Amino acid sequence: MSATHLKSIQSHARITAIGTYVPSRILSNADLEQLVDTSDEWIVQRTGIRERRIAAPDEFTSDIIFAAVRNMLDRFPVTLSDVDYIIVATSTPDTFFPSMAARVQGEFKIGSCGTVDISAACAGFTAGIQLGNSLLLTGLYRKVLVIGADAISKITDYTDRTTCILFGDGAGAIIMENTGNEKGCLLAAYSHTDGASGHHVYRSSLSSSINQFDIVTNGMLVQNGKEVYRWAVTQVSKGIQRILQDYGFSAEDIDWFVPHSANMRIVEAIQQRTGIAPEKTLTSMEYYGNTSAASIPLAIDEAFKKGHVQPNQKLLLYGFGGGLTEAAVIIRWELTEP
Ligand code: UT7
Question: Cis (ω within 30 of 0) for the bond into 98?
Answer without folding.
Answer: yes
